[in-house]
User: Fold this.
Amino acid sequence: MGKYFGTDGFRGEANKNLNYEHAIKIGRFLGWYYGANKGKKAKIVIGKDTRRSSYMFEYALCTGLMASGADAYIMHVTTTPSVSYIARVDDFDCGIMISASHNPYFDNGIKLLNENGEKMDEETILKIEDYIDGKIEIPVAQRDEIGRTVDYVAGRNRYIGYLISMSKYSFKDKKVALDCANGASWSIARGVFDALGAKTYVINDTPDGYNINTDCGSTHIEHLQKYVVDNGLDIGFAYDGDADRCLCVDEKGNIITGDHILYVYGVYMKERGKLLNNKVVTTVMSNFGLYKAFDAVGIEYDKTAVGDKYVYENMVKTGNRIGGEQSGHIIFSKYATTGDGILTSLKMMEVMLAKNKPMSELTAPFVVYPQVLKNVRVKSKPEAQNDPDVQAAVNKVAEELGESGRILVRESGTEPVIRVMVEAGTEEICEKYVDSVIDVIKNKGHLE
Assistant:
């Protein structure tokens, strides 16, 4: 990770540690960099989520791009995977998504994607950071070299058509709930499911600039659980603010995590001879139960660091076709280069319809180990993580758990947070060990 950019872009509280001047400079550099490299006017596509500050960052980025001679194509409110898709298929030099994903409304972020719709390479990111810090000077465009903005809502419509084309089945007579988190999916998801024939029930699709992710979406899935059960629905899908992740609720109201999704679709691929390398890509945060379930059906797995970036890097290197995170970032590399929440929900519908089974039956062989994960806001992630007393507490827990469980302590790539996770035989044991480590972090004065 760089000085400003983490595993999922440059993220922070709007106009505090991520401000409009940063956005102008990012636009300035990208407009110049891609124009200079290609010897012609750069063409860059931009999308945003529903946060109030997203408008400010959109205009700031456009200002920087145009001042450097680039044309900025604006998709308006749309999802991260839609920007990724359009950057790839419509011959853009790069894509920019303005979003802080699952974070609260007052945060925002700038995610950068290359011409293939993949997360931008570290080398280019470091050059952008050098420009932000004044280590590089670049010229401004003049006269006929100055760029322009282009309304590109057509790109969003093209993406919607692509999603609809992904389904092999009609959703007729299927009652489906969608929780749009008052975020970017509100303008896309319903149209896709309606077009495929579902009886679509949508909640949290009235964004006002402040309610994105607020008590809704994949981070507050308990409301969707109740909604699905109360209305007798077949399944529910919950997205986050920029819809690059998806969690599900089965017909009984049970939560279907990213691990469940990897299991269900991994088995489905294996049964059809489509699981290349006989492997699914997971992260170190995946549940013990997932690996036991995979072992039972003869599916192998790779483990990466947390972050869909690392999952995708593994998939590119190995040719593995499906991977993802417990949080619901799932990548189907045949169809996308990034996590796509709406695509994930379509793939889950495909398995249900192909096998003519409810989601509860499809996930039944995967027995989840009790897991407790707590986030601790700290003043300095490296100092808290590397504190000798904190490390000693972690090692003590690991020794006491032995083969009956595990502990994982890691830094968030997007927030000033240390994540402490324990898996063990009971939730009480997990709570005890997680709290023992957090107490040390607290007593050593690391809390924010």
About this structure: The chain has a mean pLDDT of 95. The chain is about 40% helix and 20% strand. The two ends are 21 Å apart (CA to CA).
